[in-house]
From TrEMBL:
GO terms for molecular function: ATP binding; ATP hydrolysis activity; metal ion binding; P-type calcium transporter activity. It holds the Pfam family Cation_ATPase_C. It is found in: Cell membrane. PANTHER family: CATION TRANSPORTING ATPASE, CATION-TRANSPORTING ATPASE PMA1. Its main location: membrane. The chain crosses the membrane at residues 74-91, 103-119, 267-292, 298-321, 721-742, 795-818, 865-884, 896-915. Coiled coil: none annotated. Residues 1-27 are annotated as: Disordered. This is ATPase, P-type (Transporting), HAD superfamily, subfamily IC. Residues 20-94 form the Cation-transporting P-type ATPase N-terminal domain. Belongs to the cation transport ATPase (P-type) (TC 3.A.3) family. Type IIA subfamily.
Length: 935
């Protein structure tokens, strides 16, 4: 094969594929792409076009390498400070001829935290890989006048592609010929129902993607029929390619928790450096440069004390616990920070089909010539009741029986029971008709053998109806041996009817009855029902396809059937819970606006009179105009992938924190853009799952609300143990800083002892606090702002206040212990007393911090038994450091007498007493405030 040179490519003229192909007749499309429907492209053009347009595959932009992700973990400001501390500590130890165990311990903590961060962030983005898997590996084309099978990646614009049932479409194209072609486009549009395609139609330029019935798209699947297609777009120019480009253009923003932890690190490190500078400068001014090395040791201990080394591990474990609780509620978390992020959600944008609804068409109403029924039941199970509007009519009457038999006979679907669950094979609409008949005791397997199908006139988008001919007599006093049943668009079928079944016999159809039937049809449609009309007639012979127009005349009207993808029962309550929790629910669907409106009204997402925005209307708004609209609109219908992305961005620009659900490929960019992307576990595509943060295992909107509740609990618990950990850290820093200023000689805590406190004494109770159950009002309040500071709502003031109390109590003990140790013959014993008091005081803090306003005695200790277990275990471990010789030698502690240990316990208990007294004072203040406001 000879390839064209660069110069020949430059001089060649290649067709412009950026055309609105659905607006052009197929002949013009062939002319623009310089192709022939019978011969296809010649070999020379194929080679040149492959060079010019490139391979028919999706291109991936570069992401972060694993090494880059790992390196970024060690650029965290707190870890950088710890690394610096470890280096200085190692230098000092080696200079003094001692083993650098402090430095080694710090380095190990740094490495552990780096690995934890890496494991959280190193999940490679697989959404594009899942998109690539949608491409068909092989495709049949016409080239050089011959039909051949080629690799999908070798397709070029201008190729003639042949489609048949079961084929995955490998490129976007304009239909040239189509025979009964139906394509499943749910991966692209989100709608489960197959689309009937038609080659001859020419559409307006603003026709929505789901309505472009003269085009086929890459990644969709042929359900039935066959077609000849002119390939118009390949690779990144296809609709799937546009989605891939949008997916890669969406940048991942840090989650609220990640932003808060970064803010926390910056505040801690800057505060630590300021305090270190004060201590060092103050010490030098007071004692001169002679004690500079001792002051440097104090600075190192302060730097280690201020960094909560155990916090990343505690946060990670807390989020992991949250994921387990969410799995039990059918929500699978893919990205750990999403657990906490859910608690900040202010807006949930939900798809309709399968999430708010059952994703199963269910007949709701039946209307014959003189009877009207409401039908109960769920899903496809043939279990339910016919509730007549007037009691004197029954389903045994001839008109109802004929209508239900028409539902079974004029049907290509199958209804089957598998392991106690009813499923359909075929079109969901036809499955709903079989279920309807089953509720009246008319079953397909019993009826069809006695009335075999002998002919049919298939459905087409032009005719909007289908007819079947069965061998058998169905009408009263019928002489012809065949009966034809017709179903489809009520208006079109009614035009062909001359009679109506009224009770037991056909009667002439009057103009008043016609108007009444059309009125009933409109009423059903306004309720969001999909309405089908049914008719029949007796015929002498099986009609040919050429005589279909003649055969489908003088029909006898049987009735209307209205069906709906019914809302899930639990969703209405979940929407109400959202409203109570200050969360707004929004419906974004590709379905018709009347259907969306009916479901939204039923569920309480929208109220009568609220505006409903369609994709076509949305396109007229620029982004700033859309941002104004999103505050008022709660229902969006007939939307495309770009619309979903714009809606999410508009909400985010208005300060909303958005959770977005989706199941199709079309949803992936919006899922990735949203603060929380939620994919469907049952109906979701691999692409949507890989772009998401969370997967609904049951595809249920109510599960999102349950997961949001868990997210709020996790965030509350994270704040609880942050104030627990940092309160003591501030106390440690102040105690260490006070030691040289008081002239006590030496640092009361070594870096190794501080690491023990930060990892074990702080870490174990902090993990127990992460198991604290939900507060009673957790879903009765608005969400806290995702942009609020980690120190918001009094947390910063609490940590400083408690840190100061810690320091005052411990400094008081430290001064007494120092003087006591000097007289006891073991001058270093005071350091162990300070170390022990700080550790034990944290145990009282852990007990008291479980609730902000309830006294510990008012809490059920068994509601979180892990706290009692952690306190007991930590206390025993602390005693081992004093009384177990190997640990005592390693950590540099000293033996304490019973009296000295009792004094440590006594000073520690004062911390618990202080916090409980604070609660009493605060509660009394609020009670007095409420009393005065009532007066």
């Amino acid at each position: 094969m000879s390839f064209p040179t660069t110069s020949s490519l430059a001089s060649a003229t290649f067709p412009n594929t950026a055309q609105p192909w659905h607006t052009q007749p197929s002949s013009q499309a062939l002319e623009l792409l310089q192709s022939d429907p019978e011969q296809g492209l010649p070999e020379s053009q194929i080679t040149q076009r492959q060079q010019y347009y490139g391979a028919n595959e999706l291109k991936e932009t570069g992401g972060r390498s694993p090494l880059q992700i790992l390196w970024e973990q060690f650029t965290n400001i707190m870890l950088v400070m710890l690394i610096a501390v470890a280096v200085v500590s190692a230098v000092l130890d080696l200079k003094n001829g001692t083993f650098p165990k402090d430095a080694i311990a710090i380095f190990l903590i740094v490495i552990l935290n780096g690995i934890l961060g890496y494991l959280q962030e190193s999940r490679a983005e697989k959404a594009l890989a899942a998109l690539k898997n949608l491409s068909s590996p092989k495709v049949r084309v016409i080239r050089n006048g011959k039909t051949e099978e080629i690799s999908a990646k070798d397709l070029v614009p201008g190729d003639i592609m042949l489609l048949e049932a079961g084929v995955s479409i490998a490129a976007d194209g304009r239909l040239l010929e189509a025979q009964n072609l139906q394509v499943k486009e749910s991966a692209l549009t989100g709608e489960a129902e197959g689309v009937n395609k038609q080659a001859e139609v020419i559409l307006n330029e603003d026709a929505p993607l789901g309505d472009r019935i003269n085009l086929v798209f890459q990644g969709t699947e042929v359900i039935q029929g066959r077609a000849k297609v002119l390939v118009c777009k390949t690779g990144m120019d296809t609709e799937i390619g546009h989605i891939a480009a949008m997916l890669q253009s969406v940048e991942s923003e840090p989650t609220p928790l990640q932003q808060r932890m970064s803010q926390l690190g910056n505040v801690l490190v800057s505060s630590s450096l300021i305090l270190v500078a004060i201590v060092v400068i103050g010490g030098v001014l007071r004692t001169g440069w002679g004690l500079f090395e001792q002051l440097l040791e104090v600075s190192l201990s302060m730097a280690v004390a201020v960094v909560p080394e155990g916090l990343p591990a505690v946060v990670t474990v807390t989020l992991a616990i949250g994921t387990q609780r969410m799995v039990r509620r059918n929500a699978l978390i893919r990205k750990l920070p999403a657990v906490e992020t859910l608690g900040s959600v202010t807006t949930i944008c939900s798809d309709k089909t399968g999430t708010l609804t059952q994703n199963k068409m269910v007949v709701q109403q039946v209307q014959t010539g003189c009877q009207s029924f409401q039908v109960t039941g769920e899903g496809y199970a043939p279990i339910g009741e016919f509730i007549p509007d007037e009691e004197r009519y029954k389903t045994e009457y001839q008109d109802v029986q004929l209508l239900l038999r028409a539902c079974v006979l004029c049907n290509d679907a199958l209804l089957q029971e598998k392991q106690g669950s009813w499923e359909i094979i075929g079109d969901p609409t036809e499955g709903a008709l079989l279920s309807l008949a089953g509720k009246a005791g008319i079953y397909q397997e019993a009826l069809t053998p006695s009335l075999p199908r002998v002919g049919e006139i298939p459905f087409s988008s032009e005719r909007k109806r289908m007819s079947v001919v069965v061998e058998g007599v169905m009408l009263p006093e019928q002489e012809p041996p065949y009966t034809m049943f017709t179903k489809g668009s009520p208006e079109l079928i009614l035009e062909r009817c001359t009679h109506v079944i009224n009770g037991d016999r056909p009667q002439p159809l009057t103009s008043e009855e016609r108007e009444n039937i059309l009125f009933q049809n409109d009423q059903m449609a306004m309720q969001g029902l999909r309405v089908l009309g049914f008719a029949c007639r007796a015929i002498e012979e099986i009609p040919s396809l050429e005589s279909e127009e003649i055969a489908e005349q003088q029909l006898i009207w049987l009735g209307l059937v209205g069906m709906l993808d019914a809302p899930r029962k639990e969703v209405k309550g979940a929407v109400l819970r959202c409203r109570e929790a200050g969360i707004r629910a929004i419906m974004i669907t590709g379905d018709h606006q009347l259907t969306a409106q009916a479901i939204a009204y039923d569920l309480g997402i929208a109220q009568p009179g609220d505006q409903i925005l369609t994709g076509r209307e949305l396109e007229r708004f620029n982004q700033s105009e859309l941002e104004e609209k999103v505050e008022q609109v709660s229902v969006y219908a007939r939307v495309s992938p770009e619309h979903k992305l714009r809606i999410v961005r508009a909400l985010q620009n208005r300060g909303k924190f958005v959770a977005m659900t989706g199941d199709g490929v079309n949803d992936a960019p919006a899922l990735k853009q949203a603060d929380i992307g939620i994919a469907m576990g049952i109906t979701g595509t691999d692409v949507s799952k890989e772009a998401s943060d969370m997967i609904l295992l049951d595809d249920n909107f109510a599960t999102i609300v349950a997961a949001t509740e868990e997210g709020r609990v996790v965030y509350s618990n994270i704040r609880r143990f942050i104030k627990y950990i940092l309160g003591s850290n501030i106390g440690e820093v102040l105690v260490i800083a006070a030691s040289p200023l008081l002239g006590l000689g030496g640092v009361p805590l070594s870096p190794l002892q501080i690491l023990w406190m930060n990892l074990v004494t702080d870490g174990l109770p902090a993990l127990a606090l992460a198991m604290e159950p939900a507060e009673p009002n957790v879903m009765k309040r608005p969400p806290f702002s995702p942009r609020e500071s980690i120190f918001a709502r009094g947390l910063g003031l609490y940590m400083v206040r408690i840190g100061i109390i810690f320091a005052i109590l411990t400094i008081g003990l430290m001064v007494w212990a120092y003087n006591h140790a000097q007289a006891s013959g073991d001058p270093q014993r005071w350091k162990t007393m300070v170390f022990t008091t700080l550790c034990l005081a944290q145990m009282g803090h852990a007990l008291a911090v479980r609730s902000d306003n309830r006294l510990t005695i008012q809490l059920n200790p068994m509601s979180n038994p892990y706290v009692l277990g952690a306190i007991t275990l930590t206390t025993l471990l602390q005693l081992l450091l004093i009384y177990f010789a190997p640990l005592r030698n390693f950590f540099g502690t000293h033996w304490l007498s019973f009296t000295e240990l009792a004094i440590c316990f006594g000073f520690s208990a004062l911390m618990f007493v202080w916090i409980e007294i604070e609660k009493i004072i605060v509660n009394a203040f609020f009670v007095s405030q409420k009393t005065s406001s009532k007066l």
